[in-house]
Write a structure and sequence with these properties.
single chain; three-stranded antiparallel beta sheet; 53% helix; mainly alpha; 11% strand; 5 strands; two-stranded antiparallel sheet; hpI Integrase, Chain A
Length: 179
């Protein structure tokens, strides 16, 4: 498992297979939908807890979430599009379609912390940190990632960029040693 540092803490990367195996243990559909959206979207917990049914559109192949202006920064963000082929995403889309209440999640921030602590042994911002780092590892550009996550400046996303840069430097050094 890849480890990276964030504000002095060593954090293990949270690969998809680990997420899937832990999500299978979540019996409550609302908690499972919350976990799935948080893992795949890299949004803040507060943004997810304020999500309304009207922000979501559905097609046969995808679920699109139009967040609009972000709660913390106020930046308009690009809509997030999720393939229904992602693990648990089709189930999550069906759950959202059936919801009658707004916001779609009925629990508060403390319950969100408990869900992530109890089922995933993680804190809420951890999924965001993990996902942004994963986006950068896969080669997405900074402007793309910033438009999805609502970051306004390069300095606010530097922690994520730093971990990926260190990993890339280590990989290049290892490849030079092998040559």
């Amino acid at each position: 498992m890849v480890k990276y540092s964030r504000q002095g803490k060593i954090v293990k990367a949270f690969p998809l297979d680990v997420f899937v195996s832990k999500t299978l243990l979540v019996n409550d559909r609302e908690k499972r939908a919350f976990s799935v959206l948080l893992y795949y979207s890299a949004v803040r917990v507060s943004e997810l807890l304020h999500a309304t049914k009207e922000q979501f559109t559905f097609t046969d192949l995808s679920l699109t979430w139009s967040l609009g202006a972000r709660l913390k920064g106020g930046n308009e963000t690009a809509p997030l599009v999720f393939s229904l082929e992602l693990p648990f995403m089709a189930e999550t889309a069906m759950w959202i379609k059936k919801r009658r209440k707004n916001p779609i999640f009925t629990f508060n921030r403390v319950t969100a912390w408990r869900i992530l602590r109890d089922y995933y042994d993680a804190y809420p911002h951890y999924f965001r940190l993990n996902r942004i780092t994963e986006f950068l590892r896969k080669g997405f550009t900074l402007p793309e990632v910033m438009s999805w996550t609502g970051h306004r400046s390069i300095s606010s996303i530097n922690a994520y960029v730093g971990t990926v840069s260190v990993e890339r430097m280590a990989e290049s050094l290892l490849s030079k040693d092998k040559a």
